[in-house]
Amino acid sequence: GENVEQHPSTLSVQEGDSAVIKCTYSDSASNYFPWYKQELGKRPQLIIDIRSNVGEKKDQRIAVTLNKTAKHFSLHITETQPEDSAVYFCAASPRSNDYKLSFGAGTTVTVRA
Amino acid sequence: DTEVTQTPKHLVMGMTNKKSLKCEQHMGHRAMYWYKQKAKKPPELMFVYSYEKLSINESVPSRFSPECPNSSLLNLHLHALQPEDSALYLCASSQGGGVYYGYTFGSGTRLTVV
Prior knowledge:
The structure holds two protein chains of two kinds. By secondary structure, chain A is an all-beta fold. Chain A is built from no helices and eleven strands. Chain A has strands at about 5, 10-15, 20-25, 30-40, 45-50, 55-60, 60-65, 70-75, 85-90, 100-105, 105-110. The termini of chain A are far apart. In chain B, the strands form two sheets. In chain B, strands 2, 4, 5, 6, 9, 10 and 11 form a seven-stranded mixed sheet that branches. In chain B, strands 1-3-8-7 form a four-stranded antiparallel sheet, with no helix packed on it.
């Protein structure tokens, strides 16, 4: 099945700096890559996603890039703010099973004021 | 309505109790999911219902029993749980085509087994 690796496991950044989280996946047929943000005690919330026919997508301060050849995708957060502090999960959907999402292990992001 | 509603928000149960978790959505989504999540770990898929039929059971112990009475409701019946089953139980839904259109997660039920 699909295996998603996520790095780093923890990330501490100064407010205003950028944060980058990287994920790699194993199944070259995977075609959907969402990112979820989960604040302490709350539900995972979809913040951005990308499909395999697109190389980059941006939404205000967040962007995701996808390199299908290398089988990796990254989340970029610019101008970080304290409210960006959360656990971030990447995920990939293997084409073989459209109902499953394979999640990365998560990155705990702390934005220092 | 763009939400998935889960009740109760918190549940404490003994190992001999029987309880149920409830999930409801009115977005017309035809796929519904149960996930289990331990602290700071990713969600782990338990069950998937597609068009009210169980389509995926991730080898979950029989002490967890899902039910989908209609396209808007999903239940998870709990019986004879163990302390290690304590976790956040998340319900999610997606359009009938599956995850490709994105999940919407509920806020979860925090379960403690004593």
